[in-house]
From TrEMBL:
InterPro entries on file: BTB/POZ_dom, SKP1/BTB/POZ_sf
Pfam families: BTB
SUPFAM superfamilies: POZ domain
Name of the protein in its database record: SFRICE_004378
Domain BTB: 190-254
Record lineage: Eukaryota, Metazoa, Ecdysozoa, Arthropoda, Hexapoda
Superkingdom: Eukaryota
Length: 347
């Protein structure tokens, strides 16, 4: 095992800051409370040279705080990326990292970003200079090709709370108890009606709608027609799609994952600014890619600017090029999307 010590920053010396201040990369100053990304350079080459490598560190003012490192490993055709953290002193802390290996490619910046959905890890009373394993990402050979000549960014944050004595299990248990699905099934005290295009009406609660969506919040202000009439009809949304959307708003999930139309739900999530439903729809669509729907999903992802879903669709099409002989390919009229597809296939 190697040892790497963080240098103390000299506030009187101008530091070269090539990367943004919220990105960890080498010894450049990055404050622990402000960090958003870990940047891994030359990651393509390092996957083919399995070893331990440094990422960089964070600071509290000018004092070294945490240091990140990684190890690359290849098992058959799977490439593994193990992430580690080392704390300077005896401490307890929470740290959150990108959850899963789905990513988007920024070709202009020559950068790959792992999804900004974070998984939190909790550590208590670690000894000084503890070198602690965090998580592992696995990539396919096609994923690795996407990383060639590009930097890899992994989302990271340090959630700070007033108390460090409450475990994540307790917090998550409390969150689970805030499920309002019973109110959706039996809308006692409802004060608003939403009707679908096909005439299905739902009795719902203003406060729940407004607390989950800024769009609904604006709609329900006192001077709008919808607010005064306690009613709105969504003339382009089916009763089934509306039910799934409202189910998500009340419960935080969609129970019938097999039958929900997540293409439509992604559009509704975009329209009503429902971040959680957007993320769920992206994930569901990416997990159900097939030769029959890959081009349709690519078009939906492009239309709603879902870069992560677009990358997943492009990767699937590259692995199944017979898709390009379908009639759907001939119907694509977006020249920018066609150009992106051709560039991706040629890499």
């Amino acid at each position: 095992m190697y040892e790497q010590h963080l240098p103390v920053l000299d506030p009187h010396v101008n530091q070269v800051n090539i990367t943004p201040p919220d990105v960890v990369n080498g010894h450049r100053p990055c404050q622990t409370r402000e960090v958003k990304w870990l940047r891994l350079d030359k990651i393509y080459q390092k996957f083919y040279r399995p070893n331990f490598y440094d990422i960089g560190g964070t600071y509290m003012q000018d004092v070294p705080d945490y240091w990140f490192s990684f190890k690359t490993e290849q098992v058959g055709t799977i490439f593994l990326l193990h992430i580690f953290i080392r704390n300077q002193g005896v401490t307890s802390f929470n740290v959150a990292l990108s959850c899963g290996n789905k990513f988007k490619v920024d070709r202009k910046a020559e950068t790959v970003y792992l999804q900004h959905y974070l998984k939190e890890f909790q550590f208590r009373q670690l000894g000084e200079m503890s070198h602690t394993y965090l998580t592992t990402y696995d990539f396919s050979e096609l994923d690795i090709q996407c990383l060639k000549n590009r930097k890899l960014h992994i989302a990271v944050s340090f959630p700070f709370t007033e108390s460090t004595d409450i475990s994540l299990e307790v917090i998550n248990s409390i969150k689970l108890k805030h499920d309002c699905s019973a109110l959706f099934a039996e809308p006692i005290g409802s004060d608003f009606v939403i009707e679908s295009a096909d005439g299905v009406k739902f009795q719902i609660h203003r406060v729940i709608l407004a607390s989950h969506s800024e769009v609904f919040k604006a709609m329900l202000k006192g001077d709008t027609a919808e607010s005064q009439n306690s009613y709105v009809k969504l003339i382009d949304v089916s009763g089934e799609d509306l039910r799934y959307m409202l189910e998500y708003i009340y419960s935080g999930t969609v129970i019938d994952l097999e039958n929900a139309n997540f293409g439509n739900l992604l559009m509704l999530a975009d329209r009503f600014n429902l971040k959680g439903l957007w993320e769920l729809s992206e994930y569901a669509l990416s997990e159900h890619l097939s030769p029959d729907n890959a081009l349709d999903i690519l078009i939906i992802a492009d239309m709603h600017e879902s870069d992560f879903l677009k990358t997943e669709a492009l990767k699937f099409i590259k692995e199944n090029k017979e898709i390009l002989s379908s009639s759907t390919f001939e119907e694509i009229t977006n020249h920018d999307l066609l150009k992106q597809l051709c560039c991706f296939l040629s890499e």
